[in-house]
Amino acid sequence: MRFALVGDIPLPEDLRRFHLDTVGEGLRTMGVSLAALIERDVLRAAREAFDTWPLQD
After folding, report:
1. I need a labelling partner for 48 at 20 to 30 A (CA). Which of 17, 39, 55, 57 fits?
2. Please, is 54 exposed, middle or buried when counting C-beta atoms within 10 Å of its C-beta (0-12, 13-18, 19+)?
3. Are the C-beta atoms of 33 and 12 separated by less than 8 Å?
4. What is the pLDDT of residues 24-57, one digit of tens each?
5. DSSP letters along 3-56, please?
6. Residue 36: Cβ within 10 Å count
7. Distance from CA of residue 34 to its chain's centroid?
8. Separation CA 26–CA 46 (nearest Å)
9. Pick from 28, 10, 8, 6: nearest CA to 18
10. Per-residue model confidence as pLDDT tens digits over 2-15
């Protein structure tokens, strides 16, 4: 899973950047809203519909 918004979560800067970059890439490549991207990831995890963990496309 990715953090869509890291807020005040105490993460190292490189990890914060990773999450923001991967979410941004997902938004660009899929052409969907942030809510749709989150919904997709959450439902994939709940349905165990993934080949690798963490989720990768």
Report:
1. 17
2. exposed
3. no
4. 998 999 999 999 999 988 888 888 887 776 656 5
5. -S--TT----HHHHHHHHHHHHHHHHHH---HHHHHHHHHHHHHTT--SSSS--
6. 13
7. 9
8. 19
9. 6
10. 788 888 989 999 99
